[in-house]
Amino acid sequence: MKIRPILIVILQLFLGGMMIYGSVSKFETPFAEPQEVVDRAQKYLDQDLEHISKLVLYVSGMKQTGYLWLLLGISELIFGLLVIWKKTSLIGGLLLLPITLNIFLFHVFLEPDNVGELFLTFGLLVANVIIVLFRSKPYNYLITQ
Predict the structure, then answer these.
(1) Range of 17's domain?
(2) What predicted TM-score, i.e. pTM, was given to this entire model?
(3) b/e burial code for range 24-38 (CB count within 10 A of at least 16 → b)
(4) What is the CA radius of gyration of the chain?
(5) Whether pLDDT at 30 is above 80
(6) DSSP summary character for residue 1
(7) Beta strands in the chain (DSSP E)
């Protein structure tokens, strides 16, 4: 029995499960009022916690648009489901690449102190890249001559 296909299935379940879990949480939390967001960001600035203030403003800014946070949640849900199924895992993986890259860079630049989340988000990005590389092998003839 080959270990590589089993590893890929485990990575698909990991990535898809994390995306589905993350998408569900985006629909549960109510959006804060704009003045609440500004007050909370100012409170962190007054405490010399500029990186937390940036984090609050970034996430709340996506929520305040009225559609971007929900669009991100719907995208994570759909692409996470696509990654889990073998026949659609390449499409789901390709569509998830910018999302997992953004999640990783978000944590690198806005939460560099939280090492556990950095490793988790780096794991998501690496799992996504491995899935795309493994599932795209049958289509390499389209690129090479």
Answers:
(1) 3-31+66-142
(2) 0.84
(3) eebeeeeebeeeebe
(4) 18
(5) no
(6) -
(7) none
